[in-house]
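Quick one - inputs below.
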Amino acid sequence: MRLSLVALIALGLASPALGETWEETLAAARGQTVYWNAWGGDKRTNDFIAWASGALEAQYGVAIRQVKLSDTAEAVTRVVAEKAAGQTEGGAVDLIWINGANFQSMKEAGLLYGPFLQELPNARYLDLSEGSAATVDFTIPTEGYESPWRLARFVLTYDGARVETPPRSMAALGDWAAAHPGRFTHPTAANFMGATFLKQALIELAPDPSVLQSPASDAGYEAAVAPLWAWYDALRPNLWHGGEGFPENESVLQQMLNDGEVDFAMAFDPAAAAAAVERGLLPDTVRSYAPDAGSIGNISFVAIPFNAAHREGAMVVANFLLDPAVQAHAQDITVLGSYSVLDPTKLDAAQQAAFAALPSSPALPSNADLGRTLAEPHPSWMTRIVEDWTRRSTE
Amino acid sequence: MTAADGRWMRLCVLGIVLAGLVLPIVTGLWQTGRAAFGHLPAVGAVSISLDPWRALAALPGLWRSVALSLWTGVGSTALSLLLALALAGVLNGRLSAGRTARLLAPALAAPHAAVAIGLAYVIAPSGWIARLLSPWATGWQVPPDVAIVHDTAGLSLILGLMVKEVPFFLLVLLSAQGQIAVRASLAAGRALGYGAGTAWWKLVVPQLYPLIRLPVFVVLSFALSVVDMAMLLGPSNPPTLAVAMTRWFLAAETRLILPASAAAFLLSGLVAAAIALWLAGERAVAALGRVWLRRGRRGRVAERGLVLAGAVGAVLAALAAAALASLLVWSVAWRWSFPDAWPESWSLGAWMRPAAGWGPAVVETARTGVVATLLSLALAIAWLESEDRAGLGRARWAEALIYLPLIVPQIAFLFGLSIALLGVGLPAGAPAVIWGHALFVFPYVMIALSESWRALDPRLVRSAAALGAGPWRRLVAVKLPVLSRPILTAAAIGFAVSVAQYLPTLFLGAGRVATLTTEAVTLASGSDRRITGVYAVLQAALPFAAYLLALLLPAAMRRRRGLAAS
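Output:
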């Protein structure tokens, strides 16, 4: 990043910004209502946040008001507008569910409060060793400016009643689509999920995937993406609507799978399909899996804007989300079904037992179905392939 | 005395309108304009340059977005107007004005977003129509791979806009018909040997059109800059300019805000160009029409045109009804797979637990709508009363002032306005949203109320004055009770306008103000039609309830007064 090593160390060692102890934070947080700006397109997440609000209110006197976003960037724009108007405190956004490009953009513009992760007592359950998944957001070191709350893995979902043997790699997917034109599509690359689909293909197809971990340079870029676009140019005519239009996001795609408009959906959450079956949103014949080579995985974070009106409350919420009992509750397929971000080796026996006792479902992939986790490419790759895709698809 | 009183009151009203209505629009435009030329300190841009315009021109799909906006905006307006003119001819003499207005109420009350969501559920390849016909008639076991909703030509968007704009034009035409001698014109036409349909087109339409020109421009500007309906039905890749611009405004990369501001200016130019194009079109149509008139043929083409319009109108009405019905059915479905005509299992689950879902949104929507409507109504009555007291008619510039918020595209000033509001320490939130809504509610209330107010029999007021009633007593004891029905109707229209607002809520509410409309639009890009159905049903039900109330309340009040008198 732009910060020098010395500055990094200084940041890491710096005591909490106001020198508060956790007890002081808890006391200040009591009675606050935290405006949590979170994507609102998923009812399970919304329900989970509503549940968390109730539990927090009972335990700490902190309430959550979810500001349901259709795109996380809306919250970024809001903070930008506030900064523009010189509003350095009392901001409208207290907590943001944030990732990747949005995080990078806010961090670089100095729009985030922190570092605060080290102040959270439950951070001790995380694996915070250098380069671990909980400390890196799309290859950007989080440096304590965000706190993890849920694990995401890229999976494909298909209807077993219509597809017998799903393709196990991106190359095989191209062949499948050629044999079944109009039955596969992906969300627009302007959307996070669509971009993730392209990145998954990029990792599988790039001659040397290791270059993806450093910023995309002009020299290496063309060579790395050439196989991707060759594959995509062959795939696109066989997509739904001839590749002329794309669903807005993965939820719309899931709805299309349910309607039978396509045979595949995709998610960044291995439990999404199982939960959808539970709620009557997908037929019980759907199954989820990751390509044989593994799939992209990352952790979702929450961050606090520099001018948050209820900063202490936001920190209490972030800490609550890391509580092992809360993480186990979130992993329950009947609740949220999002995999835990905690390091299992740091949990005691009782805490581990809570995870082991969770219910299962046929649409829930086993660890074997998921295979290994592939690291996110550096965000500059995503920015560039999305730009390329937009140019190519609107031509 | 009263004349001086009236002038004073008029000045006050004008002051409020200038400060509350014109100032925010001008400030918003100014802020957006500065950003369009590179000045937005928030993102570190402080120099004046053409860079935002260069960046805008370099954005992929820009020109297709511009073309799409023009095509869907002008196309939907022209088709809606043509159809409404024909339908007014079909309905004329068959249905009383009052009944027509009541029949139009549900279509007018339903917000654009609810109509769009429902329409998508009906016309999509996996939609209700295809489900009703499959597989027995079509042979489809899975939906066909054709683009209907979000089609690249924007036809679904045009259809959706027509479903909303045709009833609006019909209502406007209804009131215009009251201002000209329709029956006498038709009788004259028939005496000259023209059929009723031909006489309608040749004699009545040329008289009607000049009276509804401003509403036509309002619709044109709206159709070019609509965001919610274009997101739900319009092309997605690229979308219309208004949608693309909204996305850029809200994009993660803040550098897109500057080109987005430039796009907002471009859209204003587009609206101006479309109006100019329309005016040129008017001349061409008038010239051709004169040739058609002079030839004096007594043919039957126009009659057939009216029959066709009747059929198209009936199809539109059926689609609108099916769209609203599909929302209701989805809201109580559990599983409803293609190609089943009806859900295979039902559930009230989506309606349960309002406290965790739609309850607060209903309260927020109703509160915003009621306050914005009451404010607008009070201002409108003050304006009209001040005109009466000053003994002055409406100046043309005052008319233009009322139409200003409806003709300048919303998005061109809303983002700038949200920055300006923050700048003066007025934070985003419920009060800002109410104000933002009032910007659009007030003009409609004013337009709805003006005509009835001026049509009030002056003898009533004069008699009251002769009996010694002062100006306030005349207002409270005579005018307001006599005008209770049009006042309530204007309130219902204002409330419906407020419920339907999407962009002002989004931009001025900082996301904290969640109305049924913003929630429904967000949920429509989710995976649960049942929940979306609940929000959209409620969104359509609230304004409908307001219309119903406006219809029933005066009758109930009269009955009570009647009983008291007897």
